[in-house]
């Protein structure tokens, strides 16, 4: 097998990016796929959200991007089919690396090539900025999933992110696709939530997932216990939403494969 690499990205903070990274990866694993979650955010919230300490610069994503073999950095989680390469604040040292050196954009891609045959999927949690880490993630990935809260101001950031995707397609990764937009913190029954959802679906036809992630207190609590939501409260609306979203995404991939092979 050769992993499909998915980057979860939005340059705005507080949009559900890390929550989506953790719970999408965990849901894929629960559905019996072999998954690696790569924490590429210096805040290390995917790392702590799965119950790990943030590593020093001899381990984790910093070491991955500075030449340490990927296989030596992988940690097992409580889910047998989910592993993680953690991140810590030392990663911030690389965030403002010299982007005029185009070879720097391929550091993550080259590192993951060493181990991608060990997994079905690799999920990358990128930082809330369009710097070196995010561009590395875009260059390494097959597709981009954008979590977007149901707020009008989030539309501006979405357009900027798509512009970055287009630039990466021209420069370093022509095969990168916009896999879809996931509406988070959704309250579509409210006038505002419904209006934003409709506007995004109109602006990006066919790219918005039918499943949305509701505001849910259990989702907010789970990271403090070091657990994905499915292991913290499987019956919660948040857990069910992420499992439904993951199944929807897998159906899309299956349909795309079928079309490509007919």
**How many E-type strands?**
7
Instruction: Give the averaged pLDDT, no decimals.
Output: 91
What proportion of the residues form beta strands (DSSP E)? Answer: 5-15%
Question: Could you estimate the helical fraction of the residues in percent?
Answer: 40-55%
Shape: globular
Q: What is the number of independent domains?
A: 1
Look up the CATH topology: Rossmann fold
- Quaternary structure state of the chains depicted: single chain
The CATH superfamily appears as P-loop containing nucleotide triphosphate hydrolases
CATH hierarchy class name = Alpha Beta
Q: Which series of helices and strands comes N to C?
A: EHEHHEEHHEHEHEHHHH
Précis, in short:
The chain is α/β, with parallel strands linked by helices and 262 residues long.
Would you mind describing this structure in some detail?
This protein is an alpha/beta fold and 262 residues long. The chain has a single domain (4-261), classed as 3-Layer(aba) Sandwich (Rossmann fold). The chain is built from eleven helices and seven strands. It has helices at residues 17-30, 45-49, 60-65, 92-95, 107-113, 132-140, 154-171, 191-203, 217-221, 229-232, 237-261, and strands at residues 4-8, 35-39, 75-76, 82-85, 121-125, 143-149, 177-184. Strands 3-4-2-5-1-6-7 form a seven-stranded mixed beta sheet, with helices on both faces. Strand 3 and strand 4 form a beta hairpin. Helix 1 packs across helix 11 (237-261). The longest helix has 25 residues, at 237-261. The protein is globular.
